[in-house]
Amino acid sequence: MPRLCDICNDARAIVRRPKTAQSICKECFFHVFETEVHNTIVDSNLFKPGDRVGIGASGGKDSTVLAYVMKTLNDRYSYGLDLYLLSVDEGISGYRDDSLETVKRNKEQYGLPLLIVSYEQLYGWSMDSIVAAVGRKNNCTFCGVFRRQALDRGALMLDLDHIVTGHNADDVAETILMNIFRGDISRLGRCTEIATTGEGYIVRSKPFKYAYEKEIVMYAYLRRLDYFSTECTYSPNAYRGYAREFLKKLERVRPSAILDIIHSGEAMHVAKDVQLPSLDRCQRCGYISSNSICKACVLLEGLERGIPKLGISRTKQDVEAGPRESDLVHFEKLRQDALEMRKTRQNSAACPQSACACRSESGTENCS
Ligand SMILES: Nc1ncnc2c1ncn2[C@@H]1O[C@H](COP(=O)(O)OP(=O)(O)OP(=O)(O)O)[C@@H](O)[C@H]1O
Predict the structure, then answer these.
(1) 101-114 residue pLDDT tens
(2) 92 lies in which domain range?
(3) What is the pLDDT of residues 296-311, one digit of tens each?
(4) Which among 120, 280, 354, 364 is least buried, having the fewest CB atoms inside 10 angstroms?
(5) What is the ipTM, given to two decimal places?
(6) Domain identity same for 81 and 194
(7) CA–CA gap between residue 278 and residue 8 (Å, rounded)
(8) Does residue 56's CB lie within 6 angstroms of at least one atom of ligand 1?
(9) Highest-pLDDT range among 85-89, 190-194, 290-294
(10) Cβ 150 under 6 angstroms from ligand 1
(11) Residue 357 domain-assigned?
(12) Are residues 63 and 143 in the same domain?
């Protein structure tokens, strides 16, 4: 006699939820998974009607499930959001080029507009060329810093209010552990927040903050979603790898460990008299930064001067070096384009092509 679902007590149980250890049927699993994400969104007041929300879409399982669930919930609960897929092409051949093909298919499958921005276009360097210059050891530092800014710059181009990413409960718990191990109080405070503000005004949030990675994989599998599952060609972040391994061991003996760590992280507060770095603008590109020159500009300068270690072990003089004309021109142009686009949007009707991300007035001049 097959075991019946612990929730509906009617259909056959086919999954055991890692989060609650319940044995449930497929339909109940979809329902509880989606409802929990909806509750996270509502409880945290993540969006307001009319928000333009970009889904950071890498083609991997987390962001593919996020795109599907965001679209489903937006339709089901009438959030009133304008959803976009926003992808960053880091320029990693044999990895990101293939995963972006998945995102292009998702664009059609979910009927969402897609914008792809590339490191090559924004910084003049692809990850392949960076790795050729710096080797494999520190390349994740470059990639992480550049991706964060690239998403913000893509968001400016699309005139977004909000970016959502597929960071899940396991990612958040790992980050909390890493910040505790490193004693990084300032990041520990921020990493437990469900939403933070990036470049000036673009909010960035994690609707999967309480969703277990195992359940996201199950969801993708049972819904037969089209996603890309290969690991990055370049070396993984070693320090995160240790935290991940530690977390997996804890989860084996106590499945609630992931949520326990998140709740502990949320309960920690930095004392009011602790001096944290204040945020300002990068003198070179205008990106939000706690130094006079932001991390991406320092890394870029190192690459271009042929001393890539500059950004990894930088001196005070390096950081305080005056702005470079070429960077100022490059980023000023991006900013002007974004402002121009915003003005156009305010003064005119949106592009009539429903799946177009260009925001052009005529809808034909700039669209292909
Ligand atoms: N190239 C990219 N373009 C757009 N968004 C990205 C890109 N890479 C990562 N992201 C966003 O950041 C989130 C976390 O990415 P990360 O690579 O750390 O995790 P992941 O578990 O491999 O995610 P995924 O399964 O979605 O690839 C992704 O879910 C996605 O929302």
Answers:
(1) 999 999 999 999 99
(2) 27-272
(3) 888 888 887 775 554 4
(4) 354
(5) 0.97
(6) yes
(7) 52
(8) yes
(9) 85-89
(10) no
(11) no
(12) yes
Distance from the alpha carbon of residue 154 to the mean position of ligand 1, in angstroms:
15
Strand partners of residue 280: 289
Does ligand 1 come within 6 angstroms of the Cβ of 167? yes
Asked whether the beta carbons of 181 and 243 are under 8 A apart, the reply is yes
Whether residue 154 has its Cβ less than 6 Å from ligand 1: no
> Residue 54: CB within 6 Å of ligand 1?
no
Residue nearest to atom 22 of ligand 1 (CA): 60
Is residue 186 a part of any domain in this protein?
A: yes
**Same domain as 38, residue 150:** yes
Domain boundary among the residues 272, 294, 327 is at 272
| Residue 249 and residue 295 in one domain | no
Using an 8 Å Cβ cutoff, are 200 and 163 in contact?
no
Q: Could you tell me if residue 176 is inside a domain?
A: yes
- Residue with the larger pLDDT of the pair 146 and 184: 146
Residues 6+ apart with CB under 8 A from 155: 54, 86, 163, 198, 199, 202
Q: How far apart are the first and last CA of the chain?
A: 58
HEC sequence for the chain: CCCECCCCCCCECCEECCCCCCEECHHHHHHHHHHHHHHHHHHCCCCCCCCEEEEECCCCHHHHHHHHHHHHHHHHCCCCCEEEEEEEECCCCCCHHHHHHHHHHHHHHHCCCEEEEEHHHHHCCCHHHHHHHHCCCCHHHHHHHHHHHHHHHHHHHHCCCEEECCCCHHHHHHHHHHHHHHCCHHHHHHHCCCEEECCCCCEEECCCCCCCHHHHHHHHHHCCCCCCCCCCCCCCCHHHHHHHHHHHHHHHHCCCHHHHHHHHHHHCCCCCCCCCCCCEECCCCCCEECCCCCHHHHHHHHHHCCCHHHHCCCCHHHHCCCCCHHHHHHHHHHHHHHHHHHHHHHHCCCCCCCCCCCCCCCCCCCCC
pTM of the model: 0.81
For a substitution probing ligand 1, which of 58, 99, 204 has the most ligand atoms within 8 Å of its CB?
58
Q: How many domains does the chain have?
A: 2
Residues 318 and 200 placed together within one structural domain of the fold: no
> Does 5 reside within a domain?
no
CATH number of the CATH domain containing 262: 3.40.50.620
